Amino acid sequence: MHIRLTLSNTLREQLLLQLHQAYRRGHLRLLKRIHALLYVSEGKPVSEVMAILQLSQQSVYNYVKAFILHGLDSLHYQRPSGRPPKLTKSQKQELCAVIDQGPEAAGYDCGCWTTVLLQDVILTRFGVEYNPHYLAELLGTLGYSYQKARFVSDHLAEVAAEQATWLTQTWPTLLARAQAQGAMILFGDECSFAQWGSLSYTWAKRCQQPEVKTSGKRKAYKVMGFIDYFSGAFFYQAQTAKFTSEAYQTFLCHIMADTPTPLFIIQDGARYHTSAAMRAFFAAHADRLTVFQLPRYSPDFNPIEYLWRKLKKQATHLRYFPTFEALTTTVDAKLQALTGLPDEIKSLMGKYCATLGQEAASA
User: Cα–chain-centroid distance for residue 94?
Assistant: First the structure.
């Protein structure tokens, strides 16, 4: 069923001003009321307005009727007397369950919780209205904070068994063998550093988003690296060419030349790690090299990933590189500095040892 509401340009502008103020105050009921009036005036059917705003049919009719009779005065809500109602313990538990399941599971067509959505959840489910400021306090007491999400592979369920086997069987056996043989355990990976730089969070004045110049040149400095679990030693090889099995072999040969001990190589499934050429190479150097493959889709199992993140934060985040040489000079300096910080590198081993690598080193 359609109902009609015609607004003059002046009245529409006044409604939009009221809407803006309602957003600033976080007044959820007023937001819904004004949106309902605007949607009806645009010709949307009541059923669509109900679905968008999650209102009953009678509420939409009442809003329109009140506005026709009283105009903008119908938008004023009287503050109830007495202490504002609060959520009960059981309601807070239910709210936590709703938040954990995400907005889509709660019926919203988006993936991010906002203050307005959470106000709506609390008002719709529990009949309690929270000011945004107090809502933030409530969420804090419930153990929530406003965070940036991270991606996780949709294959995690498939590899959960592999990850469990790695942590409970493969890793303890590998560690014991390395200790018995006096071997180094080298976690390896590669990283690219782009000339156009990288963005990150930083402090800045409100409403003044930081701007970073960029050359826009899609050229990257590529680095292969290994870190030793026991000593915190860092080996790296920087290059401008793409990653290949040949470059990987050259890097491993340099490490073997610089170290006298057996080397336990822990790597992911990158093609240049597992190619036929690499299998032949490892077979030819089986007296020095023992290879272990990390579980699939498990970058968090490789502590050198955290080193790359730290390195990018120091070297390229929010920095301008007018030339490729400026980039390589900066990255090289940071790489060289890390070779002299073995304790800092050992602190990256928390996934494998609560004492950050020291337990294995002293065993």
Answer: 25
